[in-house]
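can u do me a favor
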């Protein structure tokens, strides 16, 4: 999953903050997944490390470890559920730590951005414009 954190525009606008993992209950956080840290939703980024074979290591952090949360990015690749996305689709997150995004609204879904690149139902990821600001965005209507 670590390769999904590559932003599509190297000089693009993206914002992040460093944090120490203290979620309760204690869960393992996986790089490239979406989490809520305090009142902010974003994608976990960890330092890039490679195996001896030259492949990226899938990394996790546990309680007490430090991580970086990207909460705003012009273009970022995130995991999605098995449904098609079209540019302009609203992107929601269910609020379940580490869960993928969807373009189907359900009660309690949190709007985190818009789709900027089409993705087929069989694709595992989608490129979105993550419109994060510090604080939650909860949409109350479908």
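np, heres the sequence
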């Amino acid at each position: 999953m670590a390769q999904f954190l590559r932003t599509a525009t190297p000089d693009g606008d993206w914002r992040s903050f460093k944090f120490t993992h203290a979620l309760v209950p204690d869960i393992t956080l996986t790089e490239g997944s979406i989490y809520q840290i305090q009142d902010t939703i974003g994608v976990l980024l960890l330092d890039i490390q490679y195996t001896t074979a030259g492949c990226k290591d899938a990394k996790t952090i546990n309680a007490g470890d430090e991580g970086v949360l990207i909460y705003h990015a012009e273009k970022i690749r995130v995991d999605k559920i098995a449904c098609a996305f079209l540019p302009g689709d609203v992107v929601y997150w269910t609020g379940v730590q580490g869960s993928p995004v969807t373009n189907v609204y359900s009660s309690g879904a949190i709007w985190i951005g818009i789709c900027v690149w089409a993705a087929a139902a069989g694709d595992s990821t989608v490129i979105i414009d993550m419109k994060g600001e510090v604080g939650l965005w909860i949409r109350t209507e479908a």
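The mean pLDDT is 82. hope that helps!!
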